DNA sequence: TGTCCTTGTTGAAGATCCTTGACGGCATGA
DNA sequence: TCATGCCGTCAAGGATCTTCAACAAGGACA
Protein backbone atom coordinates (compact mmCIF):
# COMPACT_ATOMS: atom_id res chain seq x y z
CA UNK A 1 0.00 0.00 0.00
CA UNK A 2 2.84 2.26 0.84
CA UNK A 3 3.81 2.15 -2.78
CA UNK A 4 7.19 3.59 -2.02
CA UNK A 5 10.22 1.55 -1.00
CA UNK A 6 12.18 3.78 1.34
CA UNK A 7 14.91 1.22 1.95
CA UNK A 8 15.59 0.50 -1.70
CA UNK A 9 15.55 4.17 -2.53
CA UNK A 10 18.09 4.97 0.16
CA UNK A 11 20.35 2.17 -0.93
CA UNK A 12 20.13 3.31 -4.51
CA UNK A 13 21.18 6.83 -3.60
CA UNK A 14 23.93 5.64 -1.28
CA UNK A 15 25.42 3.42 -3.95
CA UNK A 16 25.14 6.16 -6.50
CA UNK A 17 27.26 8.29 -4.17
CA UNK A 18 29.60 5.29 -3.72
CA UNK A 19 29.40 5.43 0.04
CA UNK A 20 29.43 2.56 2.50
CA UNK A 21 26.78 2.36 5.19
CA UNK A 22 29.37 3.31 7.75
CA UNK A 23 30.74 6.22 5.82
CA UNK A 24 27.32 7.64 5.11
CA UNK A 25 26.37 7.13 8.74
CA UNK A 26 29.44 9.00 9.89
CA UNK A 27 28.74 11.97 7.65
CA UNK A 28 25.10 12.00 8.66
CA UNK A 29 25.71 11.71 12.36
CA UNK A 30 23.81 8.45 12.78
CA UNK A 31 25.04 4.92 13.22
CA UNK A 32 25.64 2.36 10.53
CA UNK A 33 22.97 0.19 12.12
CA UNK A 34 20.41 2.81 11.38
CA UNK A 35 21.32 2.81 7.73
CA UNK A 36 21.29 -0.95 7.63
CA UNK A 37 17.88 -1.28 9.24
CA UNK A 38 16.35 1.38 7.06
CA UNK A 39 17.72 -0.19 3.91
CA UNK A 40 16.20 -3.50 4.91
CA UNK A 41 12.90 -1.78 5.61
CA UNK A 42 13.12 -3.14 9.13
CA UNK A 43 12.12 0.28 10.39
CA UNK A 44 10.44 3.35 9.00
CA UNK A 45 12.83 6.16 9.83
CA UNK A 46 11.72 9.41 11.37
CA UNK A 47 11.68 12.34 9.04
CA UNK A 48 14.45 13.96 11.04
CA UNK A 49 16.73 10.95 10.73
CA UNK A 50 16.01 10.59 7.07
CA UNK A 51 16.79 14.21 6.53
CA UNK A 52 20.10 13.97 8.37
CA UNK A 53 21.07 11.05 6.18
CA UNK A 54 20.03 12.69 2.94
CA UNK A 55 21.79 15.91 3.82
CA UNK A 56 25.04 13.94 3.85
CA UNK A 57 24.78 12.80 0.25
CA UNK A 58 23.48 15.44 -0.45
CA UNK A 59 19.96 14.79 -1.66
CA UNK A 60 16.90 16.85 -0.82
CA UNK A 61 13.99 15.13 0.85
CA UNK A 62 11.85 16.28 -1.98
CA UNK A 63 14.21 14.60 -4.44
CA UNK A 64 14.23 11.45 -2.34
CA UNK A 65 10.52 11.05 -2.86
CA UNK A 66 10.62 12.29 -6.43
CA UNK A 67 10.00 8.79 -7.73
CA UNK A 68 6.86 8.62 -5.66
CA UNK A 69 5.02 11.10 -7.74
CA UNK A 70 2.93 9.37 -10.27
CA UNK A 71 4.70 11.26 -12.98
CA UNK A 72 1.27 12.22 -14.14
CA UNK A 73 1.35 15.33 -16.18
CA UNK A 74 -1.80 16.95 -15.03
CA UNK A 75 -3.31 19.78 -16.97
CA UNK A 76 -6.18 21.07 -14.84
CA UNK A 77 -5.99 22.22 -11.26
CA UNK A 78 -8.88 23.17 -9.03
CA UNK A 79 -8.19 26.20 -6.88
CA UNK A 80 -8.05 23.98 -3.80
CA UNK A 81 -5.46 21.74 -5.42
CA UNK A 82 -2.74 24.31 -5.88
CA UNK A 83 0.26 23.71 -3.66
CA UNK A 84 0.54 26.26 -0.91
CA UNK A 85 4.14 27.38 -0.45
CA UNK A 86 3.49 30.54 1.54
CA UNK A 87 4.57 31.15 5.09
CA UNK A 88 1.20 31.53 6.77
CA UNK A 89 1.29 35.29 6.54
CA UNK A 90 1.17 35.55 2.80
CA UNK A 91 -0.22 32.86 0.54
CA UNK A 92 1.62 31.58 -2.51
CA UNK A 93 -0.14 28.84 -4.41
CA UNK A 94 1.97 27.06 -6.98
CA UNK A 95 0.52 25.65 -10.21
CA UNK A 96 1.78 22.19 -11.16
CA UNK A 97 4.13 21.71 -8.22
CA UNK A 98 4.45 18.01 -8.88
CA UNK A 99 5.07 18.34 -12.55
CA UNK A 100 8.52 16.96 -13.38
CA UNK A 101 10.91 19.25 -15.22
CA UNK A 102 8.53 22.16 -15.19
CA UNK A 103 10.08 25.08 -17.05
CA UNK A 104 8.26 27.77 -15.08
CA UNK A 105 6.71 28.41 -11.71
CA UNK A 106 3.31 30.04 -11.96
CA UNK A 107 2.04 31.30 -8.64
CA UNK A 108 -1.25 32.69 -7.40
CA UNK A 109 -0.19 35.09 -4.67
CA UNK A 110 -2.23 36.77 -1.95
CA UNK A 111 -0.79 39.45 0.27
CA UNK A 112 -2.94 40.50 3.24
CA UNK A 113 -2.46 44.04 4.52
CA UNK A 114 1.03 44.35 5.97
CA UNK A 115 2.39 41.25 4.25
CA UNK A 116 6.01 41.63 3.26
CA UNK A 117 8.62 39.42 1.65
CA UNK A 118 11.13 40.99 3.99
CA UNK A 119 13.57 43.86 4.28
CA UNK A 120 16.44 41.64 3.25
CA UNK A 121 15.89 41.68 -0.46
CA UNK A 122 15.31 38.56 -2.48
CA UNK A 123 17.89 37.71 -5.13
CA UNK A 124 18.06 34.62 -7.31
CA UNK A 125 18.71 33.47 -10.84
CA UNK A 126 16.27 33.85 -13.67
CA UNK A 127 13.50 36.24 -14.56
CA UNK A 128 10.13 36.90 -13.08
CA UNK A 129 7.05 38.87 -13.90
CA UNK A 130 3.42 39.13 -13.03
CA UNK A 131 0.14 40.98 -13.18
CA UNK A 132 -1.63 42.59 -10.24
CA UNK A 133 -5.15 41.24 -10.23
CA UNK A 134 -6.60 43.09 -7.25
CA UNK A 135 -5.50 45.51 -4.58
CA UNK A 136 -2.25 47.43 -4.37
CA UNK A 137 1.33 46.28 -3.86
CA UNK A 138 4.55 48.15 -3.27
CA UNK A 139 7.25 46.56 -5.39
CA UNK A 140 10.87 47.54 -4.89
CA UNK A 141 13.42 46.43 -7.50
CA UNK A 142 17.05 47.46 -7.38
CA UNK A 143 16.27 50.32 -5.04
CA UNK A 144 13.35 51.68 -7.03
CA UNK A 145 9.92 51.37 -5.46
CA UNK A 146 6.58 51.63 -7.19
CA UNK A 147 2.95 51.20 -6.24
CA UNK A 148 1.14 48.84 -8.59
CA UNK A 149 -2.62 48.43 -8.68
CA UNK A 150 -5.04 46.10 -10.42
CA UNK A 151 -4.07 45.65 -14.06
CA UNK A 152 -0.50 46.85 -13.61
CA UNK A 153 2.38 44.48 -14.22
CA UNK A 154 6.10 43.96 -13.73
CA UNK A 155 8.95 41.99 -15.23
CA UNK A 156 12.56 41.94 -14.08
CA UNK A 157 15.78 39.99 -13.78
CA UNK A 158 15.53 38.08 -10.51
CA UNK A 159 19.15 38.80 -9.68
CA UNK A 160 18.16 42.37 -8.91
CA UNK A 161 17.29 42.69 -5.23
CA UNK A 162 13.53 42.88 -4.85
CA UNK A 163 10.76 43.03 -2.30
CA UNK A 164 6.97 42.85 -2.26
CA UNK A 165 5.03 44.65 0.43
CA UNK A 166 1.34 45.35 0.88
CA UNK A 167 1.21 48.80 2.42
CA UNK A 168 -2.53 49.19 1.86
CA UNK A 169 -5.37 48.04 4.08
CA UNK A 170 -6.89 45.54 1.68
CA UNK A 171 -5.69 42.25 0.25
CA UNK A 172 -3.55 42.26 -2.86
CA UNK A 173 -3.72 39.43 -5.39
CA UNK A 174 -1.04 38.77 -8.00
CA UNK A 175 -0.49 36.07 -10.59
CA UNK A 176 3.22 35.69 -11.24
CA UNK A 177 5.57 33.50 -13.22
CA UNK A 178 9.27 32.87 -12.94
CA UNK A 179 11.77 31.03 -15.03
CA UNK A 180 13.68 28.88 -14.37
CA UNK A 181 11.32 27.63 -11.69
CA UNK A 182 12.33 28.59 -8.20
CA UNK A 183 10.57 29.30 -5.03
CA UNK A 184 11.68 29.69 -1.48
CA UNK A 185 10.07 28.39 1.61
CA UNK A 186 9.67 29.49 5.17
CA UNK A 187 12.01 27.75 7.54
CA UNK A 188 11.65 26.43 11.00
CA UNK A 189 13.31 24.26 13.52
CA UNK A 190 12.11 21.28 15.40
CA UNK A 191 12.70 21.17 19.09
CA UNK A 192 13.19 18.31 21.47
CA UNK A 193 11.34 17.44 24.58
CA UNK B 1 19.41 23.16 9.94
CA UNK B 2 16.28 21.38 9.14
CA UNK B 3 15.15 24.18 6.89
CA UNK B 4 11.76 22.65 6.62
CA UNK B 5 8.97 23.09 9.10
CA UNK B 6 7.09 19.80 9.07
CA UNK B 7 4.57 20.87 11.69
CA UNK B 8 3.63 24.11 9.99
CA UNK B 9 3.39 22.40 6.64
CA UNK B 10 1.07 19.72 7.97
CA UNK B 11 -1.14 22.27 9.66
CA UNK B 12 -1.27 24.30 6.50
CA UNK B 13 -2.43 21.32 4.47
CA UNK B 14 -4.89 20.20 7.10
CA UNK B 15 -6.48 23.63 7.26
CA UNK B 16 -6.60 23.81 3.49
CA UNK B 17 -8.61 20.61 3.56
CA UNK B 18 -10.71 22.15 6.36
CA UNK B 19 -10.21 19.16 8.64
CA UNK B 20 -9.87 19.15 12.41
CA UNK B 21 -7.00 17.29 14.01
CA UNK B 22 -9.45 14.63 15.15
CA UNK B 23 -11.11 14.21 11.82
CA UNK B 24 -7.85 13.95 9.96
CA UNK B 25 -6.57 11.50 12.56
CA UNK B 26 -9.62 9.34 12.15
CA UNK B 27 -9.27 9.17 8.40
CA UNK B 28 -5.56 8.50 8.65
CA UNK B 29 -5.84 5.80 11.29
CA UNK B 30 -3.76 7.62 13.88
CA UNK B 31 -4.78 9.53 16.98
CA UNK B 32 -5.48 13.21 17.27
CA UNK B 33 -2.59 13.49 19.71
CA UNK B 34 -0.22 12.42 17.00
CA UNK B 35 -1.40 15.19 14.75
CA UNK B 36 -1.18 17.68 17.57
CA UNK B 37 2.37 16.73 18.53
CA UNK B 38 3.57 16.76 14.95
CA UNK B 39 2.03 20.14 14.27
CA UNK B 40 3.80 21.55 17.30
CA UNK B 41 7.07 20.03 16.14
CA UNK B 42 7.23 18.19 19.43
CA UNK B 43 8.10 15.05 17.51
CA UNK B 44 9.47 14.24 14.10
CA UNK B 45 7.03 11.72 12.69
CA UNK B 46 8.13 8.50 11.10
CA UNK B 47 7.82 8.41 7.37
CA UNK B 48 5.17 5.74 7.66
CA UNK B 49 3.03 7.82 9.98
CA UNK B 50 3.43 10.88 7.87
CA UNK B 51 2.41 8.94 4.82
CA UNK B 52 -0.71 7.58 6.50
CA UNK B 53 -1.71 11.10 7.43
CA UNK B 54 -1.04 12.58 4.01
CA UNK B 55 -2.91 9.78 2.29
CA UNK B 56 -6.02 10.90 4.14
CA UNK B 57 -6.03 14.39 2.68
CA UNK B 58 -4.94 13.27 0.08
CA UNK B 59 -1.51 14.76 -0.52
CA UNK B 60 1.51 12.91 -1.84
CA UNK B 61 4.62 12.85 0.27
CA UNK B 62 6.46 14.37 -2.61
CA UNK B 63 4.02 17.24 -2.69
CA UNK B 64 4.35 17.64 1.03
CA UNK B 65 8.02 18.42 0.61
CA UNK B 66 7.57 20.29 -2.65
CA UNK B 67 8.50 23.58 -1.04
CA UNK B 68 11.66 22.14 0.44
CA UNK B 69 13.84 22.89 -2.53
CA UNK B 70 16.17 25.68 -1.62
CA UNK B 71 15.76 28.77 -3.60
CA UNK B 72 18.27 29.60 -4.82
CA UNK B 73 15.54 47.38 -18.17
CA UNK B 74 12.27 48.07 -17.43
CA UNK B 75 10.50 46.73 -14.42
CA UNK B 76 7.14 48.39 -13.90
CA UNK B 77 4.25 48.55 -16.31
CA UNK B 78 1.04 50.48 -15.89
CA UNK B 79 -2.05 48.64 -17.03
CA UNK B 80 -2.38 50.97 -19.98
CA UNK B 81 1.20 50.29 -21.03
CA UNK B 82 0.84 46.59 -21.67
CA UNK B 83 1.14 45.65 -25.32
CA UNK B 84 -2.13 44.53 -26.84
CA UNK B 85 -1.66 41.48 -29.00
CA UNK B 86 -5.27 40.31 -29.17
CA UNK B 87 -7.30 40.10 -32.31
CA UNK B 88 -10.01 42.61 -31.48
CA UNK B 89 -12.39 39.97 -30.24
CA UNK B 90 -10.36 38.83 -27.29
CA UNK B 91 -7.76 40.95 -25.54
CA UNK B 92 -4.27 39.69 -24.78
CA UNK B 93 -2.00 42.17 -23.10
CA UNK B 94 1.66 41.20 -23.01
CA UNK B 95 3.98 42.18 -20.13
CA UNK B 96 7.43 43.43 -21.16
CA UNK B 97 6.87 43.02 -24.89
CA UNK B 98 9.87 45.06 -25.86
CA UNK B 99 12.23 43.48 -23.40
CA UNK B 100 15.10 41.83 -25.28
CA UNK B 101 15.76 38.14 -24.69
CA UNK B 102 12.82 37.77 -22.43
CA UNK B 103 12.58 34.16 -21.19
CA UNK B 104 8.80 34.15 -20.77
CA UNK B 105 5.66 35.74 -22.06
CA UNK B 106 3.29 36.82 -19.33
CA UNK B 107 -0.12 37.79 -20.61
CA UNK B 108 -3.19 39.40 -19.12
CA UNK B 109 -6.02 37.84 -21.09
CA UNK B 110 -9.67 38.86 -21.36
CA UNK B 111 -12.22 36.70 -23.08
CA UNK B 112 -15.63 38.27 -23.64
CA UNK B 113 -18.59 35.90 -23.84
CA UNK B 114 -18.24 33.75 -26.95
CA UNK B 115 -14.54 34.45 -27.41
CA UNK B 116 -12.68 31.47 -28.82
CA UNK B 117 -9.12 30.75 -29.90
CA UNK B 118 -10.58 28.64 -32.66
CA UNK B 119 -11.68 25.18 -33.55
CA UNK B 120 -8.37 24.42 -35.20
CA UNK B 121 -6.36 23.66 -32.15
CA UNK B 122 -3.23 25.57 -31.23
CA UNK B 123 0.04 23.68 -31.10
CA UNK B 124 3.52 25.04 -30.54
CA UNK B 125 6.76 24.44 -28.68
CA UNK B 126 7.20 25.00 -24.96
CA UNK B 127 5.01 24.97 -21.92
CA UNK B 128 2.24 27.22 -20.74
CA UNK B 129 0.18 27.71 -17.65
CA UNK B 130 -2.05 30.22 -15.97
CA UNK B 131 -4.56 31.10 -13.33
CA UNK B 132 -8.18 32.04 -13.93
CA UNK B 133 -8.77 35.33 -12.16
CA UNK B 134 -12.44 35.89 -12.91
CA UNK B 135 -15.27 34.28 -14.84
CA UNK B 136 -15.31 30.86 -16.46
CA UNK B 137 -13.37 29.41 -19.38
CA UNK B 138 -13.64 26.14 -21.23
CA UNK B 139 -10.14 24.79 -21.79
CA UNK B 140 -9.59 21.82 -24.05
CA UNK B 141 -6.20 20.10 -24.01
CA UNK B 142 -5.46 16.98 -26.02
CA UNK B 143 -9.12 16.24 -26.42
CA UNK B 144 -10.04 16.70 -22.79
CA UNK B 145 -12.21 19.68 -21.93
CA UNK B 146 -12.70 21.26 -18.55
CA UNK B 147 -14.51 24.27 -17.17
CA UNK B 148 -12.24 26.41 -15.02
CA UNK B 149 -13.47 29.18 -12.77
CA UNK B 150 -11.83 31.88 -10.67
CA UNK B 151 -8.87 30.50 -8.76
CA UNK B 152 -8.50 27.41 -10.89
CA UNK B 153 -5.33 26.91 -12.90
CA UNK B 154 -3.74 24.92 -15.70
CA UNK B 155 -0.31 23.93 -16.94
CA UNK B 156 0.51 21.86 -20.01
CA UNK B 157 2.95 21.12 -22.78
CA UNK B 158 2.11 23.51 -25.58
CA UNK B 159 2.61 20.83 -28.21
CA UNK B 160 -0.66 19.28 -27.10
CA UNK B 161 -3.49 20.70 -29.16
CA UNK B 162 -5.42 23.22 -27.08
CA UNK B 163 -8.22 25.73 -27.23
CA UNK B 164 -9.70 28.42 -24.98
CA UNK B 165 -13.36 29.28 -25.25
CA UNK B 166 -15.64 31.41 -23.12
CA UNK B 167 -18.96 29.60 -23.15
CA UNK B 168 -20.43 31.66 -20.34
CA UNK B 169 -22.21 34.99 -20.58
CA UNK B 170 -19.70 37.02 -18.61
CA UNK B 171 -16.14 38.06 -19.26
CA UNK B 172 -13.32 35.71 -18.26
CA UNK B 173 -9.95 37.01 -17.12
CA UNK B 174 -6.79 34.92 -17.07
CA UNK B 175 -3.15 35.62 -16.28
CA UNK B 176 -0.95 33.22 -18.20
CA UNK B 177 2.71 32.55 -18.82
CA UNK B 178 4.50 30.60 -21.48
CA UNK B 179 8.07 29.58 -22.03
CA UNK B 180 9.92 29.97 -24.27
CA UNK B 181 8.15 33.20 -25.20
CA UNK B 182 5.79 32.67 -28.09
CA UNK B 183 5.43 36.33 -28.82
CA UNK B 184 8.09 38.66 -29.92
CA UNK B 185 7.57 42.33 -29.61
CA UNK B 186 4.71 44.18 -31.05
CA UNK B 187 5.65 43.75 -34.65
CA UNK B 188 3.81 41.51 -36.92
CA UNK B 189 4.04 37.84 -36.51
CA UNK B 190 1.93 36.35 -33.86
CA UNK B 191 1.89 32.94 -33.31
CA UNK B 192 -0.28 31.59 -31.09
CA UNK B 193 -0.56 31.44 -27.44
C1' DT C 1 48.43 -18.91 7.77
C1' DG C 2 47.83 -14.72 10.32
C1' DT C 3 46.75 -9.98 11.04
C1' DC C 4 44.31 -5.95 9.79
C1' DC C 5 41.14 -3.57 7.41
C1' DT C 6 36.52 -3.07 5.48
C1' DT C 7 31.89 -4.59 4.61
C1' DG C 8 26.82 -5.44 6.23
C1' DT C 9 24.01 -7.73 9.94
C1' DT C 10 21.90 -8.35 14.52
C1' DG C 11 20.34 -8.68 19.92
C1' DA C 12 19.73 -5.87 23.69
C1' DA C 13 19.50 -1.38 25.77
C1' DG C 14 18.31 3.32 25.36
C1' DA C 15 15.78 7.18 23.08
C1' DT C 16 11.94 8.68 20.57
C1' DC C 17 7.48 8.15 18.62
C1' DC C 18 2.63 7.06 19.19
C1' DT C 19 -1.58 5.94 21.91
C1' DT C 20 -4.47 6.06 25.88
C1' DG C 21 -7.16 8.73 28.49
C1' DA C 22 -7.53 12.53 30.57
C1' DC C 23 -8.11 18.13 30.77
C1' DG C 24 -9.80 23.08 29.94
C1' DG C 25 -11.69 26.18 26.46
C1' DC C 26 -15.24 27.58 23.48
C1' DA C 27 -19.23 27.16 21.14
C1' DT C 28 -24.49 25.70 20.54
C1' DG C 29 -28.76 25.00 22.56
C1' DA C 30 -32.10 23.19 25.94
C1' DT D 1 -27.34 27.30 34.02
C1' DC D 2 -26.23 23.08 32.73
C1' DA D 3 -25.59 19.67 29.06
C1' DT D 4 -23.56 18.42 24.88
C1' DG D 5 -20.18 18.41 21.44
C1' DC D 6 -16.09 19.64 19.17
C1' DC D 7 -11.65 21.86 19.56
C1' DG D 8 -6.48 21.45 20.67
C1' DT D 9 -3.20 20.09 24.44
C1' DC D 10 -0.72 17.12 27.61
C1' DA D 11 1.24 13.18 31.08
C1' DA D 12 2.10 8.42 31.23
C1' DG D 13 3.04 4.16 29.26
C1' DG D 14 3.31 0.90 25.37
C1' DA D 15 5.26 0.55 20.64
C1' DT D 16 8.74 1.69 17.51
C1' DC D 17 13.03 3.74 16.15
C1' DT D 18 18.08 4.31 17.08
C1' DT D 19 22.37 3.17 19.26
C1' DC D 20 25.85 0.19 21.30
C1' DA D 21 28.58 -3.49 20.85
C1' DA D 22 29.49 -7.75 19.07
C1' DC D 23 29.66 -10.87 14.99
C1' DA D 24 30.79 -13.20 10.49
C1' DA D 25 32.38 -12.68 5.74
C1' DG D 26 35.54 -11.00 2.45
C1' DG D 27 39.85 -8.64 0.56
C1' DA D 28 44.82 -7.07 1.03
C1' DC D 29 49.20 -8.04 2.42
C1' DA D 30 53.02 -10.40 4.56
3D architecture notes:
2 copies of one chain form a homodimer. By secondary structure, chain A is α+β, with helices and mostly antiparallel strands. Chain A folds into 2 domains: 63 residues, Orthogonal Bundle (434 Repressor (Amino-terminal Domain)); 101 residues, Jelly Rolls. Chain A is built from 5 helices and 10 strands, in the order αααααββββββββββ. In chain A, the strands form 2 sheets. Chain A has a 6-stranded antiparallel beta sheet with strand order 2-3-4-10-5-8, with no helix packed on it. Chain A has a 3-stranded antiparallel beta sheet with strand order 7-6-9, with no helix packed on it. In chain A, helix 2 crosses helix 3 and helix 2 crosses helix 4. Chain A is elongated, with a radius of gyration of 21 Å. The C terminus of chain A is likely disordered. The structure holds a DNA duplex (30 and 30 nucleotides).
Observed structural traits:
XRE family transcriptional regulator (chains A, B); DNA-binding; alpha+beta; disordered C terminus; 434 Repressor (Amino-terminal Domain); 5 helices; about 190 residues; 3-stranded antiparallel β-sheet; elongated; DNA-binding (chains A, B); 6-stranded antiparallel β-sheet; 2 domains; DNA-binding transcription factor activity (chains A, B); Jelly Rolls; homodimer; RmlC-like_jellyroll (chains A, B); Cro/C1-type_HTH (chains A, B)
List the helices and strands and how they pair.
The structure is a homodimer of 193-residue chains.
Chain A: H1 6-16, H2 21-28, H3 32-39, H4 47-55, H5 61-64, E1 76-77, E2 83-84, E3 91-95, E4 105-111, E5 127-134, E6 136-141, E7 144-149, E8 153-157, E9 162-165, E10 172-179
Antiparallel strand pairs in A: 2-3, 3-4, 4-10, 5-8, 5-10, 6-7, 6-9
Chain A binds a DNA duplex (30 and 30 nucleotides) through residues 20-22, 30-40, 42-46, 49, 192-193.
GO molecular function, one term (chains A, B): DNA binding
Keywords (chains A, B): DNA-binding
Domain HTH cro/C1-type (chains A, B): 10-64
